[in-house]
């Protein structure tokens, strides 16, 4: 009976990993396409908020790639992957803050119509990703960190649309700068949260190892 139970557990685990893999490949593709779209639009429109959101898409593409690599790995590997994701989020947050500071000093108002239209497309894409990830967010720390990244995207996309509307109404650079900065702060805050969670899970996984008492 014990062997049968172990066999059933292994089959269930492989089935879960297969479902996670299909879902991660799908959201990875969506984010990669949207990164290229938003980055190009951000450069053409001169929008810090769009560029910030595109970097978020690039970060998510890297995040989902890491998640795929550690699907069949141990809890410690998954915790390490989550830690890398947190570091990526912190790094992109810092880059966006630098860009926002430069734009505030020497920038001009971006193309508001491009901000709103591309931001709306990105919002729809990320809603689809969040729906796909939600059913797996409690599977493990690896999947939860991926879900957090996708959830943050909704705030970022909504901010881009609002900034575009305010730029259109005021012809000012400041809505773009402020929203871009807010997205960056969100990256930094979430990155610290993911790093704390990953550290705790890594230590917990070490304590659960069979040889932890002799390590």
The topology string of helices and strands comes to: HHHHHH
CATH architecture identity: Up-down Bundle
User: The CATH topology, please?
Assistant: Alpha-lytic protease prodomain-like
Could you say which overall geometry the principal axes of the C-alpha atoms support? elongated
State mean pLDDT (0 to 100 scale). Answer: 78
Distance between the termini: 33 Å
Largest beta-sheet details: none
- Give the fraction of residues assigned to helices: over 70%
How big is the Rg? 20 Å
Structural features, described:
- The chain crosses the membrane at residues 23-45, 57-74, 86-105, 111-133, 154-171, 177-195.
- It is a multi-pass membrane protein.
- This is Cation diffusion facilitator family transporter.
- By secondary structure, this protein is mostly helical.
- It has a single domain, classed as Up-down Bundle (Alpha-lytic protease prodomain-like), CATH 1.20.1510.
- Helix content is 87%, strand content 0%.
- The protein contains 6 helices and no strands.
- Helix 1 (2-45) runs antiparallel to helix 2 (48-69).
- It starts with a helix and ends in a 7-residue tail after the last helix.
- 41% of the residues are buried.
- Mean pLDDT is 78; it is low at 211-215.
Fill in the keyword field for this structure.
single chain; 215 residues; mainly alpha; Alpha-lytic protease prodomain-like; 6 helices; 87% helix; disordered C terminus
Nutshell version of this structure?
By secondary structure, the protein is an all-alpha fold.
């Amino acid at each position: 009976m014990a062997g049968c139970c172990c066999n059933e557990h292994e089959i269930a685990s492989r089935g879960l990993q297969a479902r996670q893999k299909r879902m991660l490949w799908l959201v990875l593709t969506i984010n990669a396409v949207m990164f290229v779209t938003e980055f190009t639009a951000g450069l053409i429109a001169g929008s810090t908020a769009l560029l910030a959101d595109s970097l978020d898409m690039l970060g998510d593409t890297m995040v989902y790639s890491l998640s795929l690599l550690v699907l069949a790995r141990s809890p410690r590997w998954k915790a390490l992957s989550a830690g890398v994701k947190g570091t990526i989020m912190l790094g992109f947050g810092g880059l966006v803050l630098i860009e926002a500071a430069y734009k505030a000093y020497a920038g001009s108002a971006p193309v508001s119509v491009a901000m709103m239209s591309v931001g709306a497309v990105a919002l729809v894409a990320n809603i689809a990703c969040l729906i796909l990830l939600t059913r797996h967010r409690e599977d493990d720390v690896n999947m939860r960190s991926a879900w957090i990244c996708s959830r943050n995207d909704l705030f970022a996309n909504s901010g881009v649309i609002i900034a575009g509307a305010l730029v259109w109404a005021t012809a000012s650079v400041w809505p773009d700068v402020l929203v871009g900065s807010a997205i960056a702060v969100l990256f930094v805050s979430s990155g610290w949260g993911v790093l704390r969670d990953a550290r705790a899970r890594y230590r917990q996984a070490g304590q659960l190892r069979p040889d932890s008492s002799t390590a």
